[in-house]
## 1
Amino acid sequence: QFLYFIGVLHMVSQKVVATAFLVSIAVFFAWDKARLQKQAAEALRQREQHRALRPPTMSLQTALQAPTMAHLSTLPVPSGTHLEASRAPAQSPRPTNAPRPTLTPIDIGSPANVSSVCPLPVLHPEKFAPVMGWGQRKRFPPCIPDGQSLFATIGPHADSLAVKIDRSNCSQQVKVFAFHELEDSDFRRLGSTFDAEARQNELKERFKNPARFGKRIEATGSDSTVFILPKGMPFAVAFCGSFEQLLITAPRPKRKRQLAAPPEGAIKNMLHLMIDSTSLYALRRSAPRLVNWLESVDRKGLSRVHSMKHYHAVSCCSPGNQIPMYSGNMNGEGDFFINSEPKQSSHDWLWNMAREKLGFTTFWSLDNCPDKSARDYHAFPSVDSRVVAPICLAGVLLSHKEATCLGGKFVDRHVLDSVDNFWEQHASSRKFAAVQLITPHEESEKLLIEVDIVLSEFFQRFEAKGGLEDTAIVFWSDHGINFGKYASTHDGEIEKMFPFAHVIVPSSVDEEVHSRLRSASDALTTPYDLYEVARSLLYFPAKPPPFSHDPKNPPLPKPENSHIMASFQKKLDPVDLTRATLSPTRSCWDANIPMEFCTCIPWRKTTEAKYAKFVDIAVDAHRKLLANYTAVCEPVRFDRAIGISVQVWPEEYKPKGKDTAKRMWMKPNRDMLRVQYETATGAGHGVFAATFSIDKLDPNKFDVAHVDRLDAMAKKCGVTQKVPEQLCVCR
């Protein structure tokens, strides 16, 4: 009986297991079907959420009454600053590089003229200037100690290089160590942030001691002033006692290639230069020399400067903005995105495209030894000549150091001198150089001021040598200040999404190209669009092949595996701004900006009672701004409020495929309120708008951001200050 019972139990258990297995399969397929349906519904919801930003078509009269017609934020700018020329009438063909007729410049401080789909956020960071000390130069220790002078130079010697010593500047014993650039074999492809930190520590240890990474060179000649460097070693460190001097030349390509002459009408060279962590606002407040140089270049006419005044980041951090700019590929933070970086050999990289497909000689350098935040493209892009190893003498995480010197010079002077050297070596060749200046990656903007000095000097030298006549320059940043006190404020959270971007193109290029780039200056643009612009200028005058990614690149991570950009999953569709005109209703979705980082927040009308008091506050602020001009301006007599509108910044969103909401990466802690009002008819009549920044938790805490005029000003009244001038109605 016991055995019979065991047998029956065994048969029953088999049937139960089989039934359970079939049921589990059925449940899995039902769950998977529901999951796919949910994902499809969520994708539709995401698209509709972006489309909801598009306003209905309005008549002119309706638009004038709508709150979205109020002036947008004006950005602080040094007095007299002008960057971009206004659109000129069509000119007759002129000789190559002949200056164009003088055009009236446009004030780059004026807001981007975008539609209400993506209004430029209202910011007033100037209130933080006294606390942050922006624009005030710090006294860094000199790179050459008192009583010491530069004592060594590097230059050609027969078929090699040699370091020559000036004994009048060094009477002590001299030691010279030669070293070479890091080879591809020095790196392995990163797979995680742990790998990046391990590489940082390895480089840090390697470059602590010149005897470890370099080769000691003995002097030749009776006076011991010449040190001949071995072939393949373009860098040297020379010591005069304890004073160290770094000597750099751009490494020569290891392989010789037959380079075809550029086609007729082609742009010969391209310089792709980035300053890290610098917003358009920061460039204007802490880099006045660069702004003035850009102005002067556009006025002189050999090149035109196209300032992208609504250039928008697509990620919080460097890789998520740099990889789209350099390769047209999406990327972000974390191990999943590290693994999805395009391969070193991918034709998506601009330098590979320029080198392999178009015959350019290519160069890369940056002013920070690859640290734990760096990616493979920072360390070993496949270019003909790169300068990375010498910067490792400064250690890693340079941007967080007080020391700005390296071997007798400010570190960025070394980088820019190597660009000069590369340009001279390959004077007759087509050249593509990509350079990153990461030093300003700090919140005080003190190092940005130093970069402003050395970079403006570099650009002036470049211009004096005629470099602008045959070179396109993409001058840009990846994001704004990303950490520290200001970055955590409402203005800082938003400002970081507005890096600067300028495209400088020789005036000899077709007028149609300039016309299209000018029309894009006020539009919503991103790194994906600037990648297409660079690609188009490399191929110019030919049309580049259609946009497509290298199929050999690793796949992107799934949205649910990314701690940011989880809402973004669509086919990238950048626009070549030299050949197409952007839609005036372009949204974040259209521009490939993930929702986590989208600043396109529409204004909506409100009648909430708690905002009614701001009408009186607006009129009072208006009167105070004109208090010193009562002799020439009519008194402000309030007539009626036209309307009140608010811009409420979202705090969360619902990622694709998720049931729960997720906090926005940006965390603005203030909302914006705009009051439109009209003053009494007759003398002094006008239509105005006051914009307030209001604390999300306490509406009684607010700042007056701007008071603007909406109707046309009949005439000027002799008021010299910009804000009172536009508010004044002449007596």
## 2
Amino acid sequence: RRAPHSHAHRTRRDAQTPTMRRTAVASAPARAPASRAAPRTHAANRSAASTKFARARRATRAVRQPDASEYVDPSQFTELELSTAQMTAYASKRPRGQFASRFADDEPRKGADILVEALEREGVDCVFAYPGGASMEIHQSLTKSATGIRNVLCRHEQGEVFAAEGYAKATGKVGVCIATSGPGATNLVTGLADALLDSVPMVAITGQVPRPMIGTDAFQETPIVEITRQITKHNYLVMNVEEIPRIVREAFFLAASGRPGPVLIDIPKDVQQQLAVPYWEPKVSLNGYLSRLPAPPTSPQLQQVLDLIKDSKRPVVYAGGGCLDADLELVEFCRATGIPVTNTLMGLGTFPQSDDLSLSMLGMHGAVYANYAIDSADLLLAFGVRFDDRVTGKLAEFAKRAAIVHIDIDPAELGKNKKPFCSIFSNIKPALKTLNKLIALEKDMPDFSEWRAAIDVQRKKFPFPIPEQVGDVIAPQAAIELLCKMTEGKAIISTGVGQHQMWAAQHYKFDEPRNWLTSGGLGSMGFGLPAAIGAAAARPGELVVDIDGDGSFVMNIQELATLHAENLPVKCFILNNQYLGMVVQWEDRFYKANRGHTYLGSPNDDFQVSKEEAHIFPDFVTISQGFRVPAERVMRMSDLEGAIKRMIEADGPYLLDVMVPHVEHVLPMVPGGGTFADTITTGDGRSPEEKDMKTL
């Protein structure tokens, strides 16, 4: 039998996770130094030289004086010159300083009531929570919320954690989900890992068995703190009701500051039931973390970047999810310099794709012209990216002709995968602000028109392919292009994971950030519908479309019930090919089209063979109607425009089941571990022979 819960008495920094410790160690001490020097990692050593001069400059600067009445958003801490003491004072303040509680100041109340009021004081307006025995006290308190916190009752805990992610991705605010102990808590695990990899601010709250029962294998007990140690930015086990106000404040600050991520709070049921009079002004206990947040970069640091730009002939900006809140600064920079920009999957929308400088997405299924630009560049400006393997392919060959400038808020990413010529530990926003000021003062900037013209040759030669219309068959690429046209590119788009995800990234054009919600790092099937629920709850009145595949959609199909019950007008646009499309594509390409359990239809009838509507399995239209969500199916291209029009104009939720061939492939494609020269531009499941898969 296992030993008692090892974190039973940890609620402060001694409960920090390896992820948080790793960040603390790797970060250069850009703020006031801690009392003891932490061990240095290779990443810290590499950035030491570039930050030495910056620290000297900061020491002579006037430090902003704290205003006792001011609240500073956690995301802004890396944009200001603050000492650790000042940051502690600011971080201890809540968004709602003046708050009218439903309790008298000296009135005892349950821990669950304290928790809910703490959420209210954080400005939370919506949570995604599913009740259970160990969390029902929290739900009772939520029903009495003084500010009317809305609970969107998803039908599965994985649905709620993905919905919280969708809420956070669509707003930039901290998403909140709540689950009970045991299976409720473990059902959050995939979403927590997803949020960590995609840097999504989230606070997950779980009920736990009463304190005396921890470690006894009690009913619905799981050590969720230990389980989530590697997939959260930080986590807490609350053993003292009086610490709830401080812990909730710390959790929200940690989730939203620095590189955002998920934070978990585990609260035993007896703590939820314990009576106490809360103290709402505790100081956060995060000195080590605060001291290692980056300060704004200095002009001399960024002058080096400007000098590299002036010396280059073929520069490219490689912008990722770290630019989501720096989109205006990114646009200003690119237009001022004339440097073309390509986005990662997570960075779509940070630069308008309608702009001539946009090279769309790069990577495994990115544009040929974007990958060409990276391969030919002599300067790569990597802003808020992590050189993911789906972007780089073979690392040694990626941007091998380029000097690399890497600016990132997480020092652990600097030099982790690709060694930069110049690395700057900074938030992207203040870095670009300073860089733009330097550019504005520069009188002799180079002209990159010849470089852009060379890229445009590739753009015209290798656009994202759309199959020629054959009969009245619906090509999935054409379906998404039509959806983009009919929504004017202004919808909030969520996706599952697979071919439909890549086609959406290729053919739906985003001009603004936070309209693209997808699972990037973890690649979680079933993400699309719950994420759309979170976005619809966060941004009422806006059009939200879940572009999904039949395989991904069925993984969280129960959330159709949430659409009806919560009256959320999410539109489900399912590209249904009856197969696990992306895996089928790899089977066609690399396994001689041998099917390894990738058929998702009925074993008795294959619609892709018979083309009879009665053979479609499962019947999403009937299932959707069973959840009281209107639905229809479209099987002909000539009928698609009218069907999309009806879907968009529907007052509430709507499901459109779009039947597409299973033989279409996502192109272009750089095989895993391959290089730009290995890019596949032709072939599909109709002719999976190697001779039909031509590379560059």
